[in-house]
TrEMBL record:
Protein family membership: Belongs to the short-chain dehydrogenases/reductases (SDR) family.
Keyword entries, A-Z: Membrane, Oxidoreductase, Transmembrane, Transmembrane helix
Protein's name according to its UniProt entry: Dehydrogenase/reductase SDR family member 7B
Keyword presence, Amino-acid biosynthesis: no
Length: 339
């Protein structure tokens, strides 16, 4: 009897494994086909996660429109990708559009220039952003507005400028690179967390409203990534967090960039990186996960470790405990000066 049972179960198990493998293969082929020859716009493309996304989407055969403030860096990235031979699919020379996402007056013109590159947009990846480090009581509302302008209002404005062309074609995919801090509030990250909470809410609403138009919306929430985000973060005073010997005040950049203008050059002496950022995931790995999430048309993805992921559930299921843990973290990081 045992023999008969085993001989009946083994073919069934092998059959299940075969079907599962076939489904995974079909999913992989659909993902590749979805990305290949698609027009993909990436903001904040010159560094960190944006740069790695440019590499992986280019290697997958996408037609890239690279966006950023620094025209020279965009040109260098374009040449690097065009010279790359490490791909088995047909590639396309990227286009680039230079503009400052924090300047509302540049967005419409930038969107027009983006559409001029390949005639339409299939995938918009809202990646550009700025970090923040500081105590709420020390932070001016000008700094809050600056962070919100770059992390929230800029991506929203660019998305709105490109949406009409997607709706007309009844085809398009909007991706928002948010953060695990868009799900939970962490001490001394108030402006950043607020901007990412707003991002999560806006694109969740957008997903529901555009479902009938066949427009995909994906929100990706990574944990800490080993990039220069903390180095380039603004502090409570508006200075640049990562430079100990130089002050990068927001007022030092009185005008913004529109398409075609060259970006400012940033210098850094004795820069420091947060421990959490230094121990974060490689941007190469996260970029591969972004590619997979877009290719599989996932709606909401958390790319964080066990502890941050558990914190999201803890916030929802045991908020009192979560609040105590965050208060303890705040006391550990910095003694309150205003109590």
């Amino acid at each position: 009897m045992d023999f008969l049972t085993s001989t009946a179960i083994l073919p069934l198990l092998f059959g299940c494994v075969g079907v599962f493998s076939l489904l995974k293969l079909l999913q992989w082929l659909r993902m590749k086909a979805y990305i290949r020859d698609a027009v993909v716009v990436i903001t904040g493309a010159t560094s960190g996660l944006g740069r790695e996304c440019a590499r992986v989407f280019y290697a997958a055969g996408a037609k890239l429109v690279l966006c950023g403030r620094n025209a020279k860096a965009l040109e260098e990235l374009t040449e690097e990708l065009a010279a790359s031979q490490a791909t088995k699919v047909q590639t396309h020379r990227p286009c680039s559009v230079t503009f400052d996402l924090s300047d509302p007056g540049c967005i419409v013109g930038a969107a027009t220039e983006i559409l001029r590159c390949f005639g339409h947009v299939d995938v918009l990846i809202n990646n550009a952003g700025v970090g923040y480090r500081g105590a709420i009581v020390d932070t001016s509302t000008d700094v809050d507005r600056r962070v919100m302008e770059i992390n929230y209002f800029g991506p929203v404005a660019l998305t709105k400028a490109l949406l009409p062309s997607m709706v007309r074609r009844r085809q398009g995919h909007v991706v928002a690179i948010s953060s695990i801090q868009g799900r939970i509030g962490i001490p001394f990250r108030s402006a950043y967390a607020a901007s990412k909470h707003a991002t999560q809410a806006f694109f969740d609403c957008l997903r529901a409203e555009l479902e009938q138009c066949d427009i995909e919306v994906t929100v990706i929430s990574p944990g800490y990534i080993h990039t220069n985000l903390s180095l380039n973060a603004v502090t409570a005073s508006g200075s640049r967090y990562g430079a100990s010997n130089q002050s990068f005040l927001l007022a030092a950049h009185p005008r913004h960039l529109c398409p075609g203008e060259r970006g400012p050059v940033f210098l850094s002496l004795h820069s420091v990186t947060d421990k959490t950022t230094a121990e974060g995931r490689s941007p190469v790995e996260v970029a591969q996960d972004v590619l997979a999430a877009v290719g599989k048309r996932k709606k909401d993805v958390v790319l964080a470790g066990l502890a941050p992921s558990l914190a999201v559930y803890l916030r929802a299921l045991a908020p009192s405990l979560f609040f105590r843990l965050m208060a303890a973290r705040a006391r550990k990081e910095q003694k309150p000066k205003h109590c």
